[in-house]
């Protein structure tokens, strides 16, 4: 008798694709995407400049090794040059990931407990909660946008420069929560301004100095909280893209469409969105965060803590997806970052920044290490949408070219041996073999005699095990301890499943044998 189990090439399950990058070899040329993809990326941003969305923009697509595509469009200043990789833009709420990272550094060095109520650092913060529920918002709650505070973008974006004394007076007037702290998501800038004050109370210095000394300088990142004095690279300074608002009167001439927006200086609300950064700098930041998935331990924060930033800690309400794409399976907030489960790409990490005069976005795909940063010098221009399009174009090109390959998730040797032993039980059931294979729960859940009877009935339902297999089905392995495979019968096939225990010695804790009703019907074409 020949018992045929499919060849051991393992398929992923419907839980989402997993990808592993195969790096291209060659030089360090700037443009590594295919011509068609490069043209598509450029067109996305050219159309926005031509359509009057913003005076200028810059986009860069990259992976863990190199820049795949980068390009500037339009003007960094009225009548000025095209933005380049070193042009400074305000990154607005992308700053929140820097704030979160500093708090984790303080936690990891034993200087801060994330579950401490915020009023222990800022006593003026005594919010009124729905129904008077006695809950004191904690640092962790504010980090994950679940501190009970309401969404406040238009108001908060104009508060950057207020001083700590002004902030304390503002808080003393009273704060009202929209939900019971710790129970729901609401995007709160006030919450991150409070976190900036927590940093100041713990470090004894200014928030902007803590970010600079604890993060920017150790990582060699050129982000700053104040607009550089020099505006011309030939004088040794960086060009800062001038921010604009778009006039609502669409009848105005194109030359008058954009109105310059004055810069605001650093203050308490710098913790929500005060950084200036170039594409070079923001790429460096994203790469360092993403490197946590490869176990990289460089820099001032461990890979474990950086991965913690990129975990979904608080589920958020669903947001619309791009046209033609399936809805997100999940969306939520980590520590200073949005985390989503995409129906086709799997996990994505991102944050947008919208500020008077500016729009920014950073987004990356941890499975492949491909990411994008994008900037525009017009307020609330929503550059996140084209950035998401660009990332999808880059990943699709990498998939089409074969650069992204499915990783093989292989069963442990013990899982494979267990599957072969279990297959043998179908033809020659032996209680002693079964007892040595199964963990104690298996016989407690269903006695061996009942399992034997059920297995025999399943074999009979498919007309017995086939002498020669009529076809082969690929086993499914979504975890080293779990395997689903198929055994051919004369009139159908059986689906078998094992899952191993987490403790040694490894034993089977789950064993099922069922008729596979989705199997293709057998035919007698050769008779």
Task: Describe the protein's architecture and organization.
- It is a single chain.
- With 527 residues, this protein is of the alpha+beta class.
- The chain has a domain of 103 residues.
- The chain contains 15 helices and 18 strands.
- The strands form five sheets. The chain has an eight-stranded antiparallel beta sheet, sandwiched between helices.
- Helix 2 packs parallel to helix 6.
- The protein is globular.
- The N terminus and C terminus are likely disordered.
Number of helices: 15
| Secondary structure tally: strands | 18
Helical coverage, percent range: 25-40%
Shape: globular
**How does the major sheet shape up?**
8 strands, antiparallel
Averaged pLDDT:
89
Give the termini distance in whole angstroms.
21 Å
How many whole angstroms does the radius of gyration measure?
28 Å
Class from helix and strand fractions = alpha+beta
Low-pLDDT stretches are: 1-31, 522-527
Sheet with the most strands: spatial strand order? 3-2-13-12-11-10-9-8
Q: Name the beta content range.
A: 15-25%
Summarize the structure.
With about 525 residues, the chain is an alpha+beta fold.
